[in-house]
Design goal:
It is built from 27 helices and 26 strands. The protein is elongated. α13 (295-303) packs across α14 and α19 runs parallel beside α27 (663-693). Among the domains are: 120-342, Nucleotidyltransferase, domain 5 (2-Layer Sandwich); 465-546, RRM (RNA recognition motif) domain (Alpha-Beta Plaits), CATH 3.30.70.330; 562-636, RRM (RNA recognition motif) domain (Alpha-Beta Plaits, 2-Layer Sandwich), CATH 3.30.70. It is of the alpha/beta class. The longest helix is centred in the C-terminal third of the chain and has 31 residues, at 663-693. Strands 5, 6, 7, 8, 9 and 11 form a six-stranded mixed beta sheet that branches. Strands 12-13-2-26 form a four-stranded parallel beta sheet, sandwiched between helices. GO terms for molecular function: exonuclease activity; RNA binding. It holds the Pfam family RRM_1. Residues 466-540, 561-639 form the RRM domain. One of its GO terms (cellular component) is nucleus.
Length: 708
């Protein structure tokens, strides 16, 4: 028996959202198949590879604000879903945890149980042993080579981006007795990006030699007090500038000094200084695939120290510098074998397991928590399938990767230009079975005031696209009959009479784009309420490209074979409509929208056909149809499922319009927006080039993770 047309959640859904769990399972199965208990999604098939392109700091707002600029992206990728932003996006994407098989009996970080100590035969495969060997060595064996510094974006003499950097002039040869100094900086977000606002330096005995606030050259946009501990009041009396700090550091450091820090490249970039001999503890305590331990975890697991307390206001850079220094000293004194025996990956997994259990216990009723313990089914953190890939012999490709350092800021590899990341992707992606490529925007394009401005512009433009003006009417025209006529094009949000004109006009705001466009197309020049009227949208600077945008939305691959039908009686049910439209050829799906607040059906629906030509034929048939005494109107669909949902949320939101801003502020925002538009065009071309290099049957996912 042939199936009748039914609502397809996969096509439209209530909100067109997918969860992080669904994305995780999709990517995990695509990469691992049936290995490692990967649940098979219905939509997965045999694949040649998996490529995930992450457009960092970009969201659905950017996609629709710069819809016309994403020419390739919107034409090639046929399926789009809304994904809720995550505070730690890549961690939730790849799955948390460092070991695919964590122990059920979670032990503390300081546990030295023999169950946690790896066998000698296992130590050979530890990334620390593979990098340094098992024997103790002097500190010079752990300083980064020039190649390692270049690869990890340390400022170096002769580098194009370091022309204005200050060289410490510490040129004497290093020995195993050279003095160590711990360095850490805190940043605030300014118009120029992350600028240093606090610097701490400690000596080998842990004595603090410098703990200084620094006044940046640009206006501070975000103090990031949660991480930096810096407030506006603290910065008011500060006079010290970056050149003052650079001069003092040059004088304080001996000619054979070795600087130690955690993600030290970010600190030196912020200081705009070059130092030839460094130890980076985020690289010293090596992990597989270039991942890094956080300083807070290492301090507790290795040193037994608590740093970066949740109760404290921000991080203490002197404390962080001292912790990094002591970690380096521990590594040098104990040797790689002793460090490997700590089994840091297992400790990290058990730590996360314990934290997850505590959070679950705190959020659940006591009885339920006890029952879970009795059943022996604790909630385990997701294993990182990048580790699973390593086990199966696959080597994932990670490009443009950004690590959260101890301050919570994404600092490593931020200076790697997108063009360089693209070049590596074009060379390496075709050779890899699993790739994650991250492209980033400059700091000037992620400022909160720019995002607020973009959001308001998108909101305003969507409102104008949903609005039409009609008239003129006779002085004594019947408003009820006018509203009835315009309602035949689709659901109306509001209808008002314009009083500023000599003859009456009406302003109609619809709830869906198709209704407004249908009104312009079918009622412009028509006789309504005894008057021949003109129907048009508002004429504003933002609406000058409205016709182009409407045409591109209509041609969007997501709207292929989809038509919009208006003029339905609200009493009609989905079953009634299925019976009415059953004679239409190749009808696949019927979607009857509901009011988000009342849950009632609207007087319109969307029809999805298996073939585009069938949709064209249906348009000719439906226009002029009468269903239950109501005359139907139809046209091609404009808004895909998630755009339709977004418009509905905008219509029912109580967001206030942005206040007035100065001409100078508007001009600055306009310049930033123009620059961002150019960046979007470049990113679209980057995606196009990568896409053309992919093998057949490659799963390619493009993510707009957002900022929240």
């Amino acid at each position: 028996q042939e199936k009748s047309s039914r609502l397809s959640a996969a096509l439209f859904g209530e909100d067109c959202e997918i969860s992080h769990d669904q994305l995780y399972e999709l990517l995990k199965y695509a990469a691992l198949g049936r290995c490692h208990n990967a649940t098979r999604p219905r939509y997965s098939a045999h694949l040649a590879g998996v490529v995930v392109i992450v457009l960092c700091e970009m969201s659905q707002l950017h996609f629709y604000k710069f819809y016309l600029q994403f020419k390739h992206l919107r034409k090639v990728f046929r399926h789009r879903f809304t994904l809720t932003p995550s505070a730690n996006f890549l961690a939730s994407l790849c799955g948390e945890g460092g070991n695919p098989k964590p122990q059920n009996n979670a032990q503390g970080l300081t546990s030295t149980s023999s169950e946690c100590v790896p066998k000698t035969s296992d130590l050979h495969y530890d990334p620390i042993i593979q990098k340094y060997g098992e024997k103790k060595q002097g500190l010079t064996s752990y300083t980064l080579t020039l190649e390692e510094q270049r690869k990890n974006d340390f400022p170096m003499k002769g580098s194009p981006g370091c022309k204005d950097y200050v060289y410490t002039e510490c040129d004497e040869p290093r020995t195993d007795s050279s003095p160590l100094f711990g360095l850490d900086c805190e940043m605030c977000l300014t118009a120029r990006g992350n600028e240093v606002t606090r610097v701490s330096l400690v000596d080998a005995q842990g004595q603090c030699l410098m703990n200084e606030l620094v006044k940046p050259t640009s206006t501070i946009w975000n103090y990031r007090t949660r991480y930096s501990g810096i407030t506006k009041q603290m910065m008011l009396p500060v006079k010290t500038r970056l050149p003052d700090i650079q001069t003092r550091l040059k004088k304080m450091l001996p000619r054979d000094a070795v600087l130690v820090g955690h993600s030290l490249n970010g600190d030196l970039q912020a200081l705009k200084m070059i130092h030839p001999s460094v130890i980076d503890t985020s690289l010293l305590f090596a992990r597989n695939e270039g991942r890094r331990f956080k300083l807070k975890f290492l301090a507790k697991a290795v040193l037994g120290k608590e740093i970066q307390s949740e109760e404290a206001l921000g991080h203490d850079p002197a404390e962080d510098a001292r912790a990094a220094l002591e970690l380096a000293q521990f590594f040098i004194e104990q040797g790689p074998a002793k460090v490997a025996e700590l089994n840091l990956e297992m400790l990290l997994t058990t730590d996360k397991l314990a934290e997850t259990s505590q959070n679950k216990a705190a959020s659940q009723p006591q009885g339920r928590s006890i029952q879970k313990q009795l059943n022996g089914t604790p909630d385990l953190p997701k294993p990182c399938f990048l580790d699973c890939l390593q086990v199966t012999g696959q080597k994932p490709l990670l490009l443009g990767r950004q690590e959260l350092d101890s301050s919570g800021l994404q600092r490593s590899n931020t200076s790697t230009p997108n063009k360089q990341i693209l070049q590596r992707a074009l060379e390496d992606v075709p050779l890899s079975t699993f790739s994650i490529i991250q492209f980033t925007l400059g700091p000037e394009y992620v400022a909160s005031h720019l995002l607020a401005g973009l959001c308001e512009k998108v909101r305003s433009k969507l409102a104008d696209m949903l609005t039409i003006y009609a008239g003129p009417f006779e002085e004594s025209f019947c408003l009820k009959s006018v509203k009835k006529e315009f309602r035949r094009c689709g659901p109306i949000q509001c209808l008002t009479v314009v009083t500023e004109t000599s003859q009456p006009y009406v302003c109609v705001r619809y709830e869906v784009l198709e209704a407004a466009q249908l009104a312009v197309e079918s009622l412009n020049g028509a006789e309504v309420a005894g008057s021949c009227i003109k129907v048009q949208r508002p004429v504003t600077a933002a609406m000058l490209d409205c016709d182009v945008l409407i045409k591109e939305l209509e041609l969007d691959v997501e709207n292929e074979g989809v038509i919009y039908v208006a003029g339905l009686k609200k009493s009609l049910t989905e079953t009634d409509l299925q019976e009415e439209f059953s004679q239409l050829k190749d009808l696949e799906t019927l979607f009857l929208p509901k009011d988000l607040q009342t849950g009632k059906h609207r007087n319109c629906c969307f029809l999805k056909f298996q073939k585009s030509q069938s949709a064209v034929d249906a348009l000719e048939v439906i226009n002029g149809w009468t269903v239950k005494g109501s005359k139907l109107r139809s046209r091609n669909a404009l808004a895909s499922g998630h755009l339709w949902r977004w418009i509905q949320q905008m219509n029912h939101s109580n967001g206030k319009q942005g206040g007035s801003s100065s001409c100078e502020t508007r001009e600055r925002l306009s310049d930033c927006e123009q620059g961002l538009r150019k960046e979007v065009k470049k990113l679209d071309r980057h995606i196009k080039k990568i896409y053309r290099r992919l093998q057949n049957n490659t799963l390619c996912v493009v993510l707009f993770p957002g900022l929240n």
